[in-house]
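Lay summary. Proteins are chains of building blocks that fold into shapes, and those shapes determine what they do. In this project we predict the shape from the chain. Here is one chain we studied, written as its sequence of building blocks.
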Amino acid sequence: MPLNISEWPTKSEVCGILGLSLSQVNNLVKQKRLEVCLEKRAGRAPLGRVNPKDLEREKELRTAQETKAHVMPETALVPASGNSRAIVRVVEPLRFAFLNAHPPLWLRFDQAVAFTGLGESRLRELVEKGDIRTERGPRGAVVLSRADLETHAERG
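And here is the predicted shape, written in a compact code that computers can read:
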């Protein structure tokens, strides 16, 4: 028995149902998570229609994966008894998120701020004193030595 795909939802309808963009739906098709059949139309481009069973399965997967986002309590960022290092302890696990697992040998100022937890003005003071070596990066930006930053962090 031939399939009656004219009752299947179109890709654009699936976008609205799942709350995805057309390229995200196309990626699901490439991953073979959604079956798409093309409906031929006279004088016009074929229309992609999505198997409703696959759509239902994908909706179930998405609702099962939806969890409440973790929000850090406000008290977590308040230093305990004036100890500003408490904030650093909370932020420290997030320090290398943008640097992947292996930070580069030379860091821009914004990266060095995240790496050390010091302010940019304090880093500039250390550079002027000569405690931290600097170079010009490939695009002309000033970069700071990670080794010097680590040494200063161990002393400080």
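What the prediction tells us: The CA atoms of residues 33 and 56 lie 11 Å apart.
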